[in-house]
Amino acid sequence: MRRKVTKAIFPVAGLGTRFLPATKSVPKEIMTLVDRPLVQYAIDEARAAGIKEFIFVTSRGKSALEDYFDNAPQLEQELRRKGKNDLLEILKSTNMDSGEIAYMRQAKPLGLGHAVWCARRFIAKEPFAVILPDDVIAADKPCLQQMVEAFEETGHNMVAAMDVPDTKTSSYGILDVKEDMGRVVSTKGMVEKPGPGSAPSNLAVIGRYILTPTVLKKLDKKQSGAGGEIQLTDAIDGARADGEEVYGFRFEGQRFDCGSKAGFLQATVAFALARDDLRDELWTYISDMLNASKAAQ
Question: Taking the CA of residue 206 as centre, how many other CA atoms within 13 Å lie in the half-sphere pointing to its CB?
């Protein structure tokens, strides 16, 4: 019987320099899409997939992230006094029970693989998920839930994947495809950020993974890869070379790269337009702007 995936690692140690000056004092992960922090979208997705234990790999200056998941008795009391029960329920949904969440410091920024390795003592001998909050995925069925269901069938390492144009392959880990079965793809290798014209396919790895403990053993070697960093894709490919299968999973949904300003803005607009309480007013504003721009031309 295969073990269920109940633990997830959230690497959130990055400095968020692309969002300075905002990230000088505010962790990027609690910047909001409409009225929910990036990390809340990741937590909600993990919960929908059956995750019970949440492991955050953090760094100095992330205390606001930790406070976000804590109880806020004074604020709860004030909302209760004013009868704002709807807001009180929203607030309670952000709380994490004692023992449900753990934090591990990454002392030096040595790459995604190193960040995952930092959480190794929380994992033991069981499969685990990795979620990058920068990658926000809008989907009817949450992306990680789709992957967990597929993992129950394959039982092997799995990475979320999407097709990207040739001009973008150098920005991603790219799968070398062995057999394309539609939603699930078996692989014969992975290449981290291949140079122009050298990508083995257009199928790029994005920030959702379900991995076996073998990957952690590969990360124990702390071998540097592309950019001089310890790359998670290298460890996954190392597990494949040792005989473990690695699958790509084409998820259903739209991915937003909220690690970039353009992607963050696109996600903000998309999530706002998806809400009944915001759609009409925002769409009117966008239409008026477009009409004014056309008139000016």
Answer: 26
